[in-house]
Amino acid sequence: MNNCFKIYEDKVLKEKYYYTKHKSGLDIYVFPKRMTQKTAWLGVKLGSFYEDGAIVDGKTVSYPDGISHFLEHKLFSSEDGVDACEILASLGADANAYTSNNKTVYMFSCTENFEEALAELVSFVYDPHFTAENVASERGIITQEIKMCLDSPYDTVSRNLLTALYGKCKLSSDVLGDERSIAKISEKTLYSCYESFYRCSNMALVVCGDVDRDRVLRTVEDILKDHEAAEPPTLPTLSYSRAVKKPYIEKRMSVSQPIFEIGIKDAMPADDPRERLLRDVAMTILDEMLFSRAGELFGELFEGGYINESYSYGYSITRDAAFHSIYGEGDDPALVLERVKEYVERIKKRGLSERDFLRCKRVMYAEFLRDFDNVDDIAGSLMNIVFDGGELFEYRSIIESVSFDDVQKCFYESFDKECYALSVIKNK
Amino acid sequence: MMNAIEYTSVSDRIKIYKYETDAFKSENISVFFCVPTQKEKNVARSLLLSVLKRGTESYPSQRQINERLDELYATLVSLKNQKYDGIQLLGISADVIKRDYTGDEDILSQAAKVMGEMLFKPLIDENTDAFFEEYVNSEKENYKSIILSQMNEPRTYAAIRCREEMFSSLGVVDTLDGMCERIDAQTPQTITECYREILDSLQLVVFYVGNRSAAEIARELEKIMPEAKGSTASVIGKGDVPLLENAGEPREVIESLEASQGRLVMGYNCRTTWHDSDYYAMLLCNEILGASPVSKLFMNVRERLSLCYECSSVYNSARGAVFVTTGIDSDNYLLAREAIEAQVADIKNGNISDAELSAAKKSISNVYAAVCDSPNAIERFYLGRIISGVEIDLEGFLKKISTLTRDDVVRAAQRLSLHTVYFLRGEGEDPEADYE
Fold it and tell me: What integer is the mean pLDDT of A23-45?
């Protein structure tokens, strides 16, 4: 049975994992790791980006905003009234799930009864049970979740930044939907959406821990033996123009001092996954060079009292969208934005430093390496990369091979003046 | 009883605790100043810690320190400030990549040098013989903004307010405003004085997770330690944490805020700390009540009644209290409060199914068995217990949990006494309001 697994190995990280495609179309990844904890993640390529406009069996489908997340909540229900969480808990497994803009993931972690828990995870995800009653009751719960996020200035500042960058469209819509959109969700729409996306060929299982890959495969086979590979949905392609929709967006809430997020829109991501990986690595190193706490900009802003310790930055790229962001707190966000713009222009004239590049490349390697000390981090990274069409260890080799020229090229074709947006939460 | 920890006393000033493992790609070392807690020095000590990261003799700015740490394979340095039973640990922790992954370069000893600079050779203004005023002032502002930003999220704010109201009579919890006043009163001189006092009677506690020998760690420390001048009396904690008396009738505090949701926090006094024989039963009781997605609060207040998205409980074993928290439509306040009280009553009455009991035990075991998968969790589990003299290792801990019975849980639940109900009523926010 061993032979059906393909092995990926990385000599620098001293790690390996195994891949196979089950006949149902499900991609299975097993990452052995000698730790006490074991984890399994079952993911589907369905998130807020894909709720409108996917092509399923030749037909274009459209669902209300927030349906992916609603499905995530409701899949735990079963016909006999015993929640999947309860069954997993009785096995000693801690169950969880999350929905993002491009995926929904169900997972558990445990230290014992791994195979029984894995069987339960696969069973409940492939056995939906929705009724008018259980959908109505879930709506009350999700409404409170939506309100909790609306009351959080941290969630609001990020949500608004996406609206400023992309306008009101799928790229900026909330994963949770809103009260109006979730009112349109019924057991019928849930079943339809489920049938469209929850196909093995549109899903992946990632397992990490001290587990036996053949037994993982057998457990899956037992449950999915009657599943025939179906055509996966064709996910919609979202597009956007280079310039931001609105350079400034503001909301007033009860905050002790203004909080803000600067977004810098990047060009549409390339179709080729490898090209996206390369851009991800180059841009992440670039952001580290420009914005890190060891950099000139942070020094100026922090020492000058324009921002406090709450500061973060990063580059995000998926198949559908890419942008840089800088989060901070301080009395004059507009001034900070001006300083950031001036700084970037200054560096464009002066040029990047190769010494900084080497240091930041090392930082990126170290941060990537650290992810391999935790089974959840491994499973999460693997899920993200394979769903984006990449390969985990290729990412590591790109970090090694990326050149100063690659980073310079990214720098000069990015950060155009019309690509900046500022989202601010001010006190009432 | 702590077989997992190797203890070495290098001199009367340094205690090293080591947890041997080669499970990780990095090794972890924390170096703490060990001092008796003194409430009036809390603020100065917190500020001291943040000033130490601003500049050293060789790296005079925070930027230079960060740059150096990044060169050392992004060594992660964090400031730590913990209190256990009258002893305060104040220090720096470093997560360092092992030489197997750095092309055989030994990072630990270089990182220890940076830590040594931060702890023992901070930047001092020659003119005033104190920390630089500019750094102190900026850290004061930072500290205040962190304190005040706790008001930004209704869920965090409500939790803080409930704790403030509940413990106000003990005088152990600072109010947000009180904290800001104390921060304002600090000067470079007060903080420098606080620093020199710590150095004079220097006691270091070191916690190391990795596979080097304790002797090697001791050698690294000796390289960075200064000569201490003062006496070496060992630090002894005051021991007893004051516990709150139960309230006859629970206090109800209602405030309002412009928000789309109301936040309810219910403070139960339980007078059970980790020195108490009922500590383990209280952990399990809290697990059954509201610490998991199959807990009574989750299954009833959320799943059955659909009142909320989040309803959970947290056991604060330092103060001896359990806090239940939820976010609801403000009109449902009384309904939610009643439903929460009903769950607590259920446990007190012994209405705990075999499935609930067994799932809760497994859930706690699962979380604690996984402690050895993370250097941080290892330190969190062992260090506090070592300092407090709670002599138990993970194995012993898991055994205690596994032998608990329903009667133990019921006995622990009897100790839960509702003390303070805090409700932050959400008013007037239109969730669909446009943000132009």
Answer: 97
